[in-house]
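Reading is simple: each integer encodes one residue's backbone shape. The lines below illustrate:
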Amino acid sequence: VVVAAVLMVVLSSNTPAPTPNEIGDTPAAQGGGGSQPAGPGGSAEPAASGAGAGAGSSSSSLTSAERGATNVAVLNGTTQTGLAREVANKIQEQGFKIGSVATNADQTVPTTIVAFTAGPERAALAVARTIGVDRGSVQPADVNTTVAAEAHVVVTVGSDKLG
């Protein structure tokens, strides 16, 4: 009952929600199918209209408690110093917990990737939307992602975020 009450308050007070949605709407205008603000069902409707099944991929559908419980690691896949920290700060501003911020072994990553460990794809999609990453760049973490053991979501920042 308490969870339902908190969920209702969060979903009915859309004050913090427009920021992530506005960020997410910008790349969607460029893309084709599988655009970033769409949930698993492909709908770009606001999360408040589908708080139950399917529409839960938008960052606004995550409660602040869910965001705070999502441990995000950020790796710099470029040679630009401070880029991972810059991206981590943007993610943290949206209420996600930042775990490690480190340099990726491969520093020639062309495109930012948001990987998720066993299950939290919805959180990964919300993180991707927060940093303006296309839904197609969200994928399960591979065995080579060593920080995945402690993180729910691992962002490997690519050269597409330079500038």
Notes: The beta strands are 71-76, 97-103, 113-116, 138-140, 153-157. The chain has a mean pLDDT of 71. Residues 2-12 form the longest helix (11 residues).
